[in-house]
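Q: Convert this sequence to structure tokens.
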Amino acid sequence: MGWTKVKRDPRLALILLAFIAFVALGLPDGLLGVGWPSIRADFSIPLDAIGWLLAASVAGYMTSSFLSGMLLSRLGVGRVLAASCLLTGVALIGYTLVPQWWLMVLLGVFGGLGAGAIDAGLNTYVATHFGEGLMQWLHACWGVGITLGPIIMTVGLTALSTWRVGYQVVGGFQIALAACFALTLALWSRNPAAGGSEATKRLTDYQTPMGETLGQARVWLSVALFFLYVGAESALGLWISEKPRAEAFSASVG
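A:
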């Protein structure tokens, strides 16, 4: 009965897919902090080497975010989401297959590209077609994902003694999600709210020049607040798992 309702109401189907996609977007962010002690041990790299992976991911994320307007205009939101989920999934599974650390860093760029496009594409789509109220629930789904990520990684480490399973599970989920987006391309190309072309046009008619955007004080305030927020979030998420593991290692050696 529930599935019949989803099929009859494309709007509901798109909302569910968007929520699931944001859960998937949060999953990889929750893996790294718990898995990092084991990752650096496997690659025999220093503690601060994580900075290279973070820098690579951020570079890819920012690039696809800046280009998201052009990508959405030329390819459509459905194709962008399908390709981005596929790229992210391949990058995450690639983490578990590469023999050298620099290759994992390189894959981090592609993972960031995919994540940035998913984030920007879905935020733009939901804000355009469904309004700000639903956006709050969308971001709550990201919170669900980042909460489940550490659990998945912990299960892999405790039950199978490997960090790779966590990335393989999440990467496989991303690829399955890419298939869902590919199968629903027709739904993403129409206006689920009114059935017309007005909202579709609104999705891609932002023509404000970059120079004009960067000239606004509120933009720079948002950038500064974002740096502070993400810095605090990343520091806590990454290092909260490292200290207990380091203490346990020191105790065992001593």
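The longest helix spans residues 10-43.
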